[in-house]
Protein 1
Amino acid sequence: MHVASQEAANWWARPRDGQAGQWVANYQKSLAARHRTVIASIVRELQVETLFEVGCHCGPNLVKLAEADPQLRAAGIDVNVDAIMAGRRWLRDKALSDRVQLNACRFPDGTASLASGSFDVVLSCYSLAYVAPADLDLALYEMGRLATRAVILAEPMTLEGRVGTPVQNASGYREWAHEYRSALRWIGSLAGGEARLVPVTPPVDRLNAILVVER
């Protein structure tokens, strides 16, 4: 991964020390957020049995999805150990830890050992925004490799064919609104699949749309 991607990952991975509790609590209180509701609607429509999330933090999307579908089995990864440990406790408290597993690792290195087609659907939610353009093809390829039916990209995105311009966050890392449609040829086994765009209106932060790519 290029330097800009590594810098963003390092920022997200660093310990939050005394702020970790409130940081995690903000995510746990976001189950009703607009973009999570749209994601849940898409997953319900796809009628999937297994799902994997890239950059899951403490698991708000996975908790929402698992509570909505008692048959769903899911897993997620995130670079932040504090978030993953808090997420595991949250899942245990909600009696979901037998169906949802969380692991701390970096993407895509952390999924290299997983078999191709391990999950029906692979989801990202505001995580590829921290991947530099030079690394986007590799990230999309790995998501497509792991998915048998669909990839869901809930991300800030450029919709008019322009190259995404990086935004410098006040904390020091950069994020991008990528133009995903032109990059879909790299999406592994789902390259050439049917793509549809679901708007998120108004946007949640910079997350303005969800791109669903189905086999």
Protein 2
Amino acid sequence: MEQRKILLNGKIERSPNGFYKTEVFINMKVSKSACSSSNPCSGYGSDVSGCLGSSNLKSIGIGNNVLAKEAADAFIKMTDDMPSNLKSKISMGGAYRPLNIQCNIFDWDKYESTGKRVKKGTSSTPAAYPGTSNHGWGRAIDISPSDVQNWIRENGTKYGWCWGEVKSEPWHFTFCGPGSNRDKNCDSFCKGKMTIDTSSDKKETSTDKEETSTDKKTTKEPKKKINPFLAPLDAIIAFAKGDTKGLEDTESLLELSNNTNEEEIKNISEEVVRIKDIMKKIL
């Protein structure tokens, strides 16, 4: 049975080895008329760039910016590992971008007259055709300042974040790590390999289980110190006479008495009562 890679624009790609790959890559261009509606996603559903539901997105902890879950986890791990003096300077220019915003920034007139895809109000700033942006898949960020950009260019690849999708934009980075809707062009501009596990879904290890079970075990309460009257009889007699010399080593006597079993303690207690009565009569 043939396995097919389906593109919603109607094209089917054959892999180099002659077999079709099973992979749904939805990259549907949204028409100008659809973009002009108050809710351009209504005619396309949640599987189109810019129409992701909130359940597919995750906060990156900076402002209100969100990304696809895998991209968000990788971004959080990357910025956690970033030098603190750089992390504190991060300024986000964009992350996930809803379709209606992509529709509004795209210069339709320029596109229809020249075929160029640029941002409205600019002469040459690139803008993805609505429905095709990696921002709309929650897999792209615009970040500054320049020293933060340089650090990500040097270190971001191991976290899955790569520069080069739009070479005229030093602030634009694309997540080429795992997850849905990975840009097929990542293989051409992302030269390094992702080497750091950034997933937030960690499986419980056997060590974790052992520690958990250990925590659940009831801790034995320390033995209560026994009253000095239950120490050996010579110390009791000395105590009764008011001779403190016989109790100079009280701590060692207590330690010794702590090792005494309950039956012995009962017998000693009875003996103490008896001796105390005798001492009262003598004294």
Protein 3
Amino acid sequence: MQAYLYAVESESSERRDVGLTDDSNTAADWRYEHRWKPKDTEPWAAVSILHGFGDHGGRFEGMATYLASLGLAVSAIDLVGHGKSPGRRGVIASYEQLLGEVDGALSLSRSDWPRIPHFLFGQSMGGNLAINWMLRGGQQSALIHGAIIGSPMLRTPCEPKAEFMRAGRWLAQKLPNLRIHTPMCVEKLSQDRRAQDAYRRDRLVHRAMSLRLATSLIDSGNWAMDNAHLLSIPTLLMHGTHDALTSCDASEEFARRAGPTAEFIAWEGCRHDLHDEPQREAVFSSVAFWAKNRCIQTETIGRIGLSKGSFPRSAVGRASDCRVCIEGNPQASYTADF
């Protein structure tokens, strides 16, 4: 059991200083934001959370509280069309609009905590956005110390047939905002029945996805896989080996293609929402440890004048192998040789 170091305070509110860059006029210029920070002490780093499809930032309260108790400031906006933020549920003006949400989230975090290192955490669809934002050179990509990606939506375990995708893209061109209902089997999200019940009771989650959003996520996932070698920001990818919604193999393949910039942890036996699994405290500790190590590395790089590419990988991974396997039991026994 992790000993908490600090008491935590939290708040949530509408934020109008988001700095959105899209000109779609399809959503108001504000987002609903959730914030957590250690009480009575200055945070040593900040994490901006990007949630998954149909989700919202409030569902990361457990993770954010844990990280804040370790001295991190954490924020999570409800992305456009999600949670308490404006926009029709599951509808986007363009994929570029979603990438603009990443810049907006970081703008808010940096305005609250301007003098400390900043990290991105992207879950599922949020992982897709964070990865594509880094690969395509998001406006503030040079200003973050690293990214932690959980169960990213790069590929699904069972890829759609080519004929189906051609029909879907044709229909998306004709009716881009046509929404389809995507039913969710909550047992695929987490093994924890309390987490499953919380998801069922949450009135802010939704399962409506427009055809434009669906095809954009598939295409951007494939594009990211093909361009993984462009990754220049230190990134930790994590995935449960029993994830039935997004592909664990794709995450591992992405890390390999990205080279030494990326590290990969396979959580043995875990499902899609690592932050809601029985092993979540071990997951949170790995996130905090990796971020702390990145801060130490960056400080050392600046002090001795090394290039970022010449600095060794963190202790989470091994230089010769991007894969670290952690068994999925409540005690989170580590099977890797660190």
